[in-house]
Amino acid sequence: MSTSVWALLCAVRTLLGFVVPGRTPVTPVFSRRAGGSPDEATFATLHVAALAAPSLRAGLTRDSARKAIRHLHALLGAGAIAVTDVDGVLAWDGEADCQREHAPGHARAVLATGRPRVVTGHALACGLPGCAIRGAVVVPLTVDRRVVGALAAYDSAVGPALVRTVTEVARWVSCQLELAELDSSRRRAMEAETRALRAQISPHFIYNSLTTIASFVRTDPERARELLMDFADFTRYALRRERDFTTLADELHCVDRYLLLERARFGERLRFTVRVAPEVLSVPVPFLCLQPLVENAIKHGMATTGGCGEVRVLVSDAGSEAHVSVEDDGLGMDPERARLLLGDDSRGERGEGGIGLANVDVRLRHIYGEDYGLVVETAPGAGTKVRLRLPKISCRA
């Protein structure tokens, strides 16, 4: 059972007054205040927690705390609650506003030591007649064992039930913040992979393209001009930084520019065919997910056939998905070597320093799930075909 689920169940059991294994029974809190059967109380507690979770998954910010505070207040049932970070109060909910300005002071020791604290007596004296607040429980919020904030509950009395409830709810909130950190780390990793992908555009390809263009300057200036424009289009696309998703049409345009440049270099020795179903041109795809496959196909197809080869790109409409295959007519390879190709970019299978298949495979799995990685079909003497599936979904640009 995950820590998040366990913490939430502990909170539910505490609210209902059930015995958590290894802990001392406490007085019911939720059932005492809201009434109703245990089943109704369990449902209500889980429902409120589900409403708070999306905001907390954004991390501990002023905006997320303000969106979650009412749900957390309903979950705790205290007179007032506060969510703080190391700089002060992020959000407050409740009638005892007289304690709000003192909340950072109440949380200071908790933030420094990482230990829960019960506040009573003069530390809570507000001087207002009729103030019902007589105690507070302040519990740290942690991410990766670092104290990032505190959850404080203020009430007319502080007993074991309130301490237990605030403690378990704080643990659940911390789990949501941990998940938010994991989401953020995953996004940063994907952004780093895309930056690395751009940096891996083969310097040999750039050098060879410019050398090829230079060779046409005197013999065929018009062809040199066209190739230079193709090269400019390719590098502008490959090095852009606006977004990490594009359309299949743009990705295929990049592939077309790349093939034209390689065709100018190899001449009639390189043959290629591109067939595309028009229905899939608007499908959003990860940036630079096709060109690396074509680059590898040219490398393997031509390097193993005496400098001649054919590359075939087929993009078809498959209902809820677009199916893409990139195939060469080279000598193929052992399936175990193909498995290593997808498992480790560091083995040098990058087409003279280009982008490895593993980079594309990892990005596809991160974005769409484990079922959407590259599939390599190959055998000695049978050429190589790389297939991928692209769901027709809206991806964030």
Automatic annotation (TrEMBL):
<dbReference type="InterPro" id="IPR005467">
    <property type="entry name" value="His_kinase_dom"/>
</dbReference>
<dbReference type="GO" id="GO:0016020">
    <property type="term" value="C:membrane"/>
</dbReference>
<keyword id="KW-0808">Transferase</keyword>
<dbReference type="Pfam" id="PF01590">
    <property type="entry name" value="GAF"/>
</dbReference>
<dbReference type="InterPro" id="IPR050640">
    <property type="entry name" value="Bact_2-comp_sensor_kinase"/>
</dbReference>
<keyword id="KW-0902">Two-component regulatory system</keyword>
<dbReference type="Pfam" id="PF02518">
    <property type="entry name" value="HATPase_c"/>
</dbReference>
<feature type="domain" description="Histidine kinase">
    <location>
        <begin position="290"/>
        <end position="394"/>
    </location>
</feature>
<dbReference type="InterPro" id="IPR003594">
    <property type="entry name" value="HATPase_dom"/>
</dbReference>
<protein>
    <recommendedName>
        <fullName>histidine kinase</fullName>
        <ecNumber>2.7.13.3</ecNumber>
    </recommendedName>
</protein>
<dbReference type="InterPro" id="IPR010559">
    <property type="entry name" value="Sig_transdc_His_kin_internal"/>
</dbReference>
<dbReference type="GO" id="GO:0000155">
    <property type="term" value="F:phosphorelay sensor kinase activity"/>
</dbReference>
<dbReference type="InterPro" id="IPR003018">
    <property type="entry name" value="GAF"/>
</dbReference>
<dbReference type="InterPro" id="IPR004358">
    <property type="entry name" value="Sig_transdc_His_kin-like_C"/>
</dbReference>
<keyword id="KW-0418">Kinase</keyword>
<dbReference type="Pfam" id="PF06580">
    <property type="entry name" value="His_kinase"/>
</dbReference>
<dbReference type="InterPro" id="IPR036890">
    <property type="entry name" value="HATPase_C_sf"/>
</dbReference>
